[in-house]
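Sequence only, no structure available. Ideas?
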Amino acid sequence: MTLNSNIRGAILVAAAITGLVTLASPARADRCDDSAKELASQIDRLKVNFRAANVVYLTHPAAKELSVGCRGDKYSIELFAKGDRKTKPEFYALVGSMAAIVFTVTKDDTTTGATRCLKRMGLLRGDKVTMRYRRLNMECTRTKTDASIAITRGKDE
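Reply:
I predicted one. C-alpha cells follow.
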C-alpha cells in the first residue's frame, strides 16, 4: 500500500513541475513573424498585411504581391515577390534588400542574383528560369502580365 501511494505522489509532483515549467516559459514568436517585423521596420513603405498558415503577406508600392513563408517541405524560409512584366529598378532593389534581411546575405549579392534571374527570362531561356546564387535557390517565372521571383534556402543550409 505505501509503495503504491509513493508512486502516485511522485507522479503528481512530476506533473505539477511539468505544468509549472510550461506555464513559466516565455512565449516565442515565429521566425516568419520576426522576419516580417524586421522587414517592415527596415524598408520604407513596406507594411505587414496579414498572416495565413506559415505565410506572412506584405504590401509595397513597387510590387503587386509580397510574402515570406516558413518551413516548407524542402526549404526553411521562402521569399516571394511579384511585379510587372517589365520590372523596374525599384523592384530589383526591393527584392534585393528583402532577401538580404531575410537570408542574412549582403544586399549587393542578393540584388545581383535577383536581377540576373529576372533578366534571364526571355526568348532564349523561356518563361521559367531556375538558378542558384550564393547558396540561395531562385526561381523566376513570367506570364503575359507579371514577373515573379521565389527565393529559398534549403533546410540543410
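The mean pLDDT is 83.
Hope that gets you unstuck.
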